[in-house]
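[Automated response] Your request has been received and processed.

Submitted sequence:
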Amino acid sequence: MTHEYPRNDTYGSVTESRVSALGGFAFTQRQREFLVTVMVHSGCFLERQYCAFTGTVRGQNSREFMARLVARGFARAVEPGPVRRGRLYHVHHKPLYEAIGQADNRNRRVRTLGRMVERVMILDAVLGDQRCWWLSPEGDKRRFFALMRDNNLRTEDYPHIAFGSGRQRTIRCFPDKLPIGVEKDNTSHLIFLYLVKRRLPVDFRQFLIRHVTLFRFVHTWTVRLLVPRRFRKAVALYKAALREELWTPMHPSVSTMLETYFRQRHVQGGHLSDPDDRYIREEFRKQGMPKIQALYRAWRRAGDGALWQAHSTTLRDDRAHGCSAIEVELLNRQYLQLTGRMDRDVWAKRGAMRKSRQVGPPPSTASPDIPSPLVAP
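Generated structure:
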């Protein structure tokens, strides 16, 4: 099997130059290609993924490769369960990442088991679609949009999250760390992956709001939902969330009312409640509380710009002309029977239980016979 490199390095993260940079580590060509693919897209992999990529049968050759990676300190083996239930391999060796120009790539960091399972799922989606070149690191994505599209996008126009304020303000672009696919036959069509990790599309709505400006800029695009088995029943909710956030614009008068209402709620405590104004209450019913809550979260982060975007009709028009779509890819593999570890709803419940626990000793009650030293006689 021969790996197909992008005709222009800005189209994909697995380039011929990066593969050649690992020439001094005593790997074969296919092994170098696989390692670069893992490092830029996930950092973690399974033995079966290596076998599928290289076209080899799982056996002595694959076991020797895994053992060599671990023995030379290039990767660590993670045994999440019983010995015969499989292993994850995490590529963390810094000189490997430095060789391909990704010394600060976050895939080097140790993650929780649930995060590693998520990365393995994303790697499966990338390896399973040979019709696209894939971009993962932030620098590769920004270079693609800046050089190949000749755009005037500012840093704030990319999907981002911001930390701090004033001179200490830091902006991190593409914080979701999800690959973007560029179709080989039609490079103007982009695929945005999203891994479903909750039964309710709360985080998905924020993902869409962050990408609104980029969706408007791209000519044709598709959001591809990666759905593990345990979240199959949630597909309809996610499709409805995309229709509401992108393809159902608000009336400008509603956005204006929400600006005032959001400021009032922020001053009075920060949580949404049933508004006293019957017109706003009627719009809550029409728009749906999940959409209003998502806009409120985005407004608290980005200001009134989030509401101004909500009444734009550009994305609705793109859909009418067939320039945007949503599709579903079911992840039917077992993933070492660990998909429960990446369920964010379970994480939230555990966090709530920890917060409800009593951290310190119970407060002692003063004895009625002994006066407190803090009270004057």
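Summary generated for your ticket: Strands lie at 44-45, 75-78, 88-91, 132-135, 160-163, 170-173, 180-183, 189-195, 220-228, 324-331. Confidence is low (pLDDT under 50) at residues 356-377.
If you did not submit this request, please reply to this message.
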